[in-house]
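step 3/5: co-fold with adenosine-5'-diphosphate
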Amino acid sequence: MTRVLSVASECVPMVKTGGLADVAGALPAALAGCGVEMRTLLPGYPAVQAAVAGGAIVADLGDLFGGPARVRRGTLGQQVLYVLDAPHLFDREGSIYLGPTGNDWPDNPERFAALSRAAAHIGAHGIEGWTPQVLHLHDWQAALAPVYLQDMGAAERVGTLLTIHNIAFQGLAPADRLDALRLPRSWYNPGGIEYYGQISALKAGLVGADKISTVSPTYASELMTPEFGLGLDGVLRDRQADLVGILNGIDVESWTPPYKTPRGKAAHTRALRADIGLPDSDGPLCVVISRLTQQKGLDLLLNVLPTLLDAGGQLALLGSGEARLESGFRDAAERHPGVAVRIGYDEALARQLIAGGDVILVPSRFEPCGLTQLYGLRYGTLPLVALTGGLADTVINASPAGLAAGVATGFQFTPVTANCLRGAIMRMCALWQSPKDWQKMVKNAMAHPVGWDQSARTYAALYESLKKVP
Ligand code: ADP
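step 4/5: write tokens
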């Protein structure tokens, strides 16, 4: 058995803003069958505290950045959950990262330094007699842990893995917070946690962790280029030997289609059209479930929407984010009967869209792994995606070769421009005219493995290699 503490700032079902939460929630169960005992450490936001209400206090961390901090024990299904109970940092309503003005909480550096420090404390001292051999740290919010671990004199005993879910979030803090964050001055240099005159929590993990992973092999390669590395590509090139890409899976039990055949799917498509207010149609129903940000490339979709509609296609979009995209899609829905838009976050509708859609569109400029294309595969809702990151690694393009070999599961385009997206939409609409080929692709997609099995084994082997003590 390898004992691993997973440290994350969000986790389903309690708190989620993105794919990280799905991964943090899925890993412990996925790894249980691979000889890994994973426990999870989360910040004590109200929703997390509620989930472990009455759980015993199992560690006292004293004063942590301006108030008392303790670790509370809870359970989540079969899994042990540790919660950092520090009300001055986490007991607040609203977004977990953003204050009421829509900007980062001003004390985010302290909040997530506290999470990292609690992780290091558990690594160094154990908890309830349980001593993790590996800390699995997710994103910048947990990335200071290797620095604290070394400062506590425990880096020789405890292995560390940092997983990058999205390098766009780096956890920068002004350099004058160094002492307040209890970071050793010896780390503040260009080979350490300094980043253009600031403290970078993510960089601390990139230079300090024993190994680094990210959520797809293609994103791992992309991160070492200036275009995708967002200033940290040089650091990653230096650590190439310790960098791996491991694809995310999805929870295939929770995401099981309520049908086995294309005919079964058609009933869901009809119901979706009726529910969301789209007219009946013989054309393909395309769906989008996404944050509406520059990353996701949906401005390109707005651009080429007429091509889809002229070819008889329809669009149903669920998402929220940047105002210009929200209003762009709202306007499109008002102008075109073939477009339905819901602004907001709605898990039930997301599932209905995946089940009822014919195609799921993911035209991202970068996409570390992406989950919605995996849901699409599982449900026979063919992914039409940019050839980047995990989208490149999980979809088999309906190229002439892919079709001839009978293995295609979706449509890919590159580079990520409006013209190339338009081309892919036209190829998709042409293939729609050939139901036999389409149904073969639906079958291929539904048979494609999208669960955790393979990746869980890869993580288990990686943890094994990180063990420093038996
Ligand atoms: P990211 O983490 O970059 O947002 P992913 O595709 O990895 O992108 O994960 C997004 C997750 O959030 C998926 O599970 C997706 O279904 C879900 N999601 C995104 N937007 C919405 C929304 N508006 N309503 C419901 N679920 C959403």
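step 5/5: annotate
The first helix runs from residue 19 to 32.
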